[in-house]
Amino acid sequence: MKKVLVSALVLVLGIGVGGGAAYGTSLMLGAPRNAPVKTEFVPTGTILAPLVFGDGSLASYVSFEVQLEVPSDKREDVQLRLPILLNAINMRTYRTPMASGRDGLIPGLAVFRKVVLDAAAETYGKDVIRRAVVTQASPV
Predict the structure, then answer these.
(1) pTM for the whole thing?
(2) Cβ distance 119 to 66 under 8 Å?
(3) Theoretical Cys-Cys bridge with 119: which of 15, 21, 41, 88, CB 3.0 to 4.6 Å?
(4) DSSP H helical segments within the chain, as ranges?
(5) Residues 132, 32, 12, CA angle at the centre, nearest 5°?
(6) How far does Cα 52 stand from its chain's mean position?
(7) How many CB atoms are closer than 10 A to CB 129?
(8) What pLDDT score does 33 carry?
(9) CA gyration radius for the chain?
(10) Do the bridges between strand 58-71 and strand 39-52 make them parallel or antiparallel, or are there none, so unpaired?
(11) CB within 8 A of 74, min separation 6: which ones?
(12) Which of 72, 80, 78 is closest to 116 using CA atoms?
């Protein structure tokens, strides 16, 4: 009987000490790391990109409007370095086949979105741009 009571007491004390240590650690480290981050959309303005066939020949040009989802505290940094991002996008689009359809006037939006995200990762780092949303695409 004495062994059962001692075992139960040790179990209760262990849970109390472990819970107290977890609580104290959470207070020392601050907010949890998976707390939701407020984001905003930053417009890039009009992006003029060449539509290139798979063989590298020029089909036409297309105008895109894109919004970038960024954490609220990084908005100003993204806006300040937007010309660098646009240059990185421009350097990729002429090498990336995006033309689809028989006449090559239909842009591949998924391909363009990937180009924008790759250029953004190069310009701002991997964790700054959460996603790119193409809001408009029109042939020129």
Answers:
(1) 0.71
(2) no
(3) 88
(4) 2-29, 75-80, 82-93, 109-124
(5) 150
(6) 26
(7) 22
(8) 64
(9) 26
(10) antiparallel
(11) 124, 128
(12) 78
Q: How far is CA 95 from CA 31, 75, 128, in A?
A: 44, 29, 25
Torsion of CA 129, 131, 137, 140, to 10 degrees: 30
The single-letter code of the amino acid at 106 is I
Reference 51, options 88, 110, 102, 106; nearest CA is 106
Residue 101: how many CB atoms within 10 A of its CB?
11
